[in-house]
Amino acid sequence: MDVWVDDHHQSQDTGWDLGQAASQRTGVLRIKEDKAAADRLGSTTAPRDSLQAESQGLHPSSESRNSTEAEDLPEDFDWQAYLAYYPDLVSSGISSESGAQQHYLAHGRQEGRVHRRLKVLMHYTACTGLINQHYSHIAAFTLSSAIGAELVLAPGLQRDSFASYFSAHNEQNEVTWTSMSTDQLLDVDRIIEEWRARGMDVHKTPPLPSLPNMGDPDTAYPQYQQSPEEERLNVRLSDIYLKAWDLPELVERTRKAVVEHAARMELEQTDAPIDHINLYLPCTFFMLRSISDLPRATMVARTLFFAPLLTGLADEIVAGMTAAGAAPFNSLHLRIEKDAKDWSTIMGGTGVLWEGYAAAMQEAGFDNQAPLYTASGLLTYGAAQDMVDAESTLTALGFCSSVHTKEMYLPSKVLDGLASEQKALVDFLVLARGARYVGFGSSTFSFFLREHRTLQGLPRSSSVLVDASVIGTDALFQAAATIV
After folding, report:
1. Helix 130-147 to helix 420-431 angle, to the nearest 10 degrees?
2. What mean pLDDT is reported for the chain?
3. Could you tell me if 51 and 196 are in contact, meaning their C-beta atoms sit under 8 angstroms apart?
4. Which of these, 37, 106, 128, 187, is most buried using a 10 Å CB contact count?
5. Entry pTM
6. pLDDT tens for each residue of 393-403
């Protein structure tokens, strides 16, 4: 199946990287499920054209128009883009340059069809916790790479406390979210360079006057400052949060929204051609059914590098806990904080939850010979006694020689200087290096950690998740959270 790809554009200098966009690069990307294409998409060192495999090319050239046959055509007519934007023409049998030209002259101009290659700048929101944000980035990068848009990174978020009750329902939610710089979680400069080499421009997050309402992710569109003229170029894609669209379906919805908006703009603005279209998406968390194009999702996940500061802190913890790597350790994501109390209730209470953890640790092969690194938000809000009780339980069950946390290795001054999601990411990066790992089946943090460990080359069998099927998220996670 062919999917449309737009051009990469250079806008006027806005003061936040857009003026530094690379030169125009385009192509019609053909999605293939053959092994060769999958191998190319899975490589982190793929060449610049790896995202444009089997390209039919949308590059302007002297061969893209025949002036003797189409003297009345607009100078910027692009026949390949014309066909890519209007699949109905291809379905009707039009597939050549002359056919596209004839259709436009006979019907397309009068119908107001877009005849030039569109330039699309995609904006999106990443919502709620650390890994929900990360999945939002993965979905946005995947869609942007499929349609050839330039991408503006969403801002990062931090919560006020793990002690606050989180709910998707505004009237029940207690968590307060505030924005933070994306480079506090991701290695933004490295990501930009990586994607530039792959043929896609990624831009740093512009100033955000106000944060959209994270209590309503369906309508949490980015709210950047724009002139009235720029706002007219905006088109919004809706009905994506948690919808797990197949990538071809999502591409088609995007194509239709962008092309129809561009056609309306062309009719309204006859004095000068439109320069670009701003595509706005609300929270992109689980908007994509990742298994619909798993090679691409895997490739994207490999390229979203974490912040060097946090990677360095994780290195310090591992070195201190393992005598510089001489001794192995196991990892546990203990999801028993107050903000996750609904899960405990659905599971049947704290006792049942602990039984689930014990069964998972036994399956993973935990024993009393190895130290256990435990990640939990309990200590972030002063629940020290709860953590002591948890450590006693783990030791008594014979699943570790000793329990370790980041608070044992990082000075309080360092920890106090980290935002909530930064602390969570330090834990994530340490857990990822355990010989064996146990997490909670209905936590995106736990689920993605298993995927990440597999990406790093650890056997999938070394990661076990507590059976939380009663909560009802298994099917969605398998469809939208699977990366490897």
Report:
1. 80
2. 84
3. no
4. 128
5. 0.84
6. 999 999 999 99
Question: Taking the CA of residue 356 as centre, how many other CA atoms within 13 Å lie in the half-sphere pointing to its CB?
Answer: 25
d(CA 192, CA 20): 12
- HEC readout, 382-408: CCHHHHHHHHHHHHHCCCCCCEECHHH
Residue in the structure block whose two tokens are 């000793």: 402
Cβ–Cβ < 8 Å for 28, 5:
yes
Separation CA 409–CA 318 (nearest Å):
9
Distance CA 182, CA 197 (A): 21
Q: Residue 40: is its pLDDT beyond 90?
A: no
- Tokens of residue 221, six digits: 């569109």
Architecture of the domain spanning 308-480: 3-Layer(aba) Sandwich (3.40)
Residue 381: per-residue pLDDT: 64
Question: What residues form DSSP beta bridges with 382?
Answer: none
**pLDDT computed for residue 166 by the predictor:** 67
CA distance 135 to 477: 11
Tell me the C-alpha distance between 80 and 439, whole Å. 49
Q: CA-CA distance, 50 to 39, in Å (whole number)?
A: 10
What would the DSSP string read from start to end of 5-73?
--B---PPP-SSSGGGPPPP---PEEP--SHHHHHHHH-TT--GGGGGTT-------TTS--TTT-TTS
The answer to whether 84 and 28 are in contact (CB under 8 A) is yes
Helix (H, G, I), strand (E, B) or coil at 442: coil
CB 125 within 8 A of CB 140: no
State mean pLDDT over 245-262: 97
Residue ranges of domains in the chain: 119-295, 308-480
Angle at 436 (CA atoms; ends 421, 387), nearest 5 degrees: 50
Tell me the β-bridge partners of 248: none
Contact 453, 437 (CB under 8 A): yes
Cβ pair 235, 257 in contact under 8 A: yes
Long-range contacts of 92-97 (CB under 8 A, 24+ apart): 97/64, 97/65, 97/66
